[in-house]
User: What shape does this take?
Amino acid sequence: MATLNALSEGRQVEFTRLRAILRITDGNLGAHLTTLENAGYIAVTKDFIGKKPRTRIALTRAGRKAFSRHIIFLREILDGEGSERESR
Amino acid sequence: MALSRQDAAAALHDIEQAQARSASLENYHRAAPHFMIWGVLWAVAYTLNDIYPLRSGAIWSVVVPIGVIAGLLAMRGRNERTWRYAAVIGAIFIFIVATVVVMWPVNARQVAAFIPLLVALTYVLKGIWSGVRYVGLGIAVSAFTLLGFFLVKDHFFLWMAVVGGGSLILASIWFRRV
Assistant: This one.
């Protein structure tokens, strides 16, 4: 999510490019994306360029908000305010 | 799941690194088409300059607007402020004209070396802030320009077409890569 959050709002990234940026395997990335998609944090678009399938991923508004909340949560722990709170 | 301060610090560190890497790669990716456009235009314009050395003004007055329009078209559909691109090109153009006027008399060879050196400087400055690949490109363009200026006597424009334009085209390919 940090990788997607660094991109401008609405910007889609191809699966293969995201995999290269993150330096992880297809299966690992696919599992992460499925979890995030089910939570509504990312939008996955699948189409074809000619006969070649293409998968593009973008952070949704809900995903961006959730990510911001997570950052705030981590900062609060660092500041000593939320060390016992549950990660949301 | 309870997180310790150390866990939180480590997570924030990882997030910052991931965001910085992503932003840097995205920056390269967006710049790549512009390097291809200007690389091809440099190659064409300097080659024409070599063939018609007295027509520099006419050649570049056609090539620069083509580059700007192509650059704006390349940004179409992206969430980018295109006026910034046009403003940067305009500012560089005005600076070059002002410098040439102040330094006059200068010959075509000097101007042909000065412009790439200035452009290379902008790459180095950008690279210091947002990505080492720009620094590499700036150093390469500067080095090739100076090498040609001092060592290539008869076909400096052709030299710039090949190594100047070529550097930008190769940079475009390099910048696309993760």
